[in-house]
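seq:
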Amino acid sequence: MQFTLRLGDPQSTIHYPLPIHGGADWESRSAPPNASTGNDKEFVSTTSLQLPEIPPDHIVVPSYCQHASKYQFEFSLATDQALCHLHPFPTPQSYEPPATNAETVTPKIDCWHSKTKISGAKLRLWVTGDRPPTSASHLITITVRPLELNEPFKLQTDACLPSERTTLYSQMQADASIANRICSPTALAMAMSYWAPKPNWQHTVEACYDPYTRAYGAWPLAVMCAAAHERMAAVEAFSDWASAASLLEAGLPFVASIRWKDGELDGAPRQHSAGHLVVVRGSDLNNDKVHVLDPAAASTEEVVREYPAEQFSKAWLGYRGAAYIIGPPQPSHSPH
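struct:
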């Protein structure tokens, strides 16, 4: 099963590179389920979305982005058996997740994994901020796909974006205490630099730190960081190269979440990884290669790489298929 739903306003349609399917129905509320700021002047809004039947062993990836505002959001998944929360973002250090005994779904940091068939599931989103979503450019995305796919994945485009347009960063040149942990913000900074003034790498790293998990790889924080740079962004889970090809053909790199074992990704700077983020900047049908910027390279000179398409596709689309999609900058920003 592959299910994708994107809801936003007309501004989102302009600044997000994949089709928007409609708008969300928002309601105003007096308080969110896990208020953290206590600011009476903040707006609280909520919306609910009905999901189709979800088979077992699928991943459910929700994403929220809002421009020109300071906000906090939280997703929950309501089933007939339980209400299962993901923790809010940004997450207070003192946050305590509500108890759940959901037997049908397993909550992760930024997604759910279904354990059994789920019927009648409803996705709920709370947003607290200095302005309501209805007065800001915003985007909700939900994707559902099998957690694992074991099939051949075929490239669909020869588009390749020039690496010289990108500011290159090697995560290994950061402080040794965090160098092995910051592939997500480093890949994000490279992807954002392609069509806009380069972001401050250190600030991007700091913006992606989650005090609750003490990690830098939470997908929602990457989206929020992009929103702070006036980019419409989302995390989606792809099942093939079709949408990825449309992004590359539109001149937009994206960030892919990959994992592989020893000997499964020739030319990678690491022998294996249970979770790593790289920038995909193109694909080559004739040579069956994927062109990437790999932040795990030892130096910026070694960041530009190419991987065998079959191996890379298995590392990315074979498990979860998650990607950061980052739209073009606002019209006030011109390409550099």
